[in-house]
Specification:
215 residues, alpha/beta, Rossmann fold, 2 domains, eleven-stranded mixed sheet, 37% strand
């Protein structure tokens, strides 16, 4: 089971959502993202939010079309997206995708990127991806990984999320590395590219943000 979460970020940054409508995919709307789904003829199984970003008319539409609504007060400790993501993690999916979580306010963007650490903190092995028109973002703990070339996402960047990432090795890349130590704030691994259909990256300590992007 795949769970797709659509938040209320700018619509112009959304990818083509029809590419992600697998038969085993469940759609969940977050705040204004619920209305974005309904406009695209996608009925979400669940809706989360305080719904302060929709009009009364739009909220009426949402309440008529979505059976599973969890409405919260605006004054709360978690963001709407965090509440939806925590629910999604409890469903034991094979994959979680976050859409509509970039653009607009920078505080929301930084918070949403940091939400990707949620499965790591929960010791949950599920992959969580933040996706928009130009980017696919995910986190990896220390380990050895294979990464496939995506023609529409030419560039691959590796950004430390922790104070240090040790023994970073990149193979099959235009700019390979061997057992390099990089620290928080390093730009060493920005805008790399795969030279083959597959490459590998590995490191022994830390957490990396992996960003696949195009111009």
């Amino acid at each position: 089971m795949i769970i797709n979460l659509l938040a209320g970020g700018p619509e112009e940054l959304l990818p083509d959502l029809t590419r992600y409508q697998e038969t085993d995919a469940i759609w969940v709307g977050v705040d204004r993202g619920v209305f974005h789904l309904i406009k695209r003829n996608i009925t979400p199984a669940m809706a989360f939010g305080d719904f302060d970003s929709v009009s009364e008319e739009e909220l009426t539409v949402i309440e008529h079309q979505v059976s599973g609504i969890r409405k919260y007060k605006p004054e709360k400790d978690e963001t709407d997206l965090e509440l939806a993501l925590n629910w999604a993690l409890d469903q034991n999916p094979t994959c979680i995708r976050l859409f509509g979580a970039t653009g607009g306010r920078l505080d929301h963007l930084f918070a949403n990127v940091q939400l990707l650490i949620s499965p790591i903190r929960a010791n949950n092995p599920v992959d969580v991806y933040l996706i928009d028109q130009k980017n696919i973002i995910f986190l990896k703990e220390a380990g050895h990984y294979t990464i496939e070339k995506i023609p529409s996402k030419k560039y691959i960047s590796f950004v430390p999320l922790t104070l240090e990432v040790t023994d970073l090795t990149l193979e099959g890349f235009k700019f390979p590395l061997k057992n390099r130590h990089i620290t928080l704030g390093s730009t060493l691994c920005i805008s790399n590219e795969l030279i083959n259909d597959y490459g590998t990256f590995s490191f022994s300590k830390g957490i990396l943000i992996v960003i696949r992007s195009n111009d």
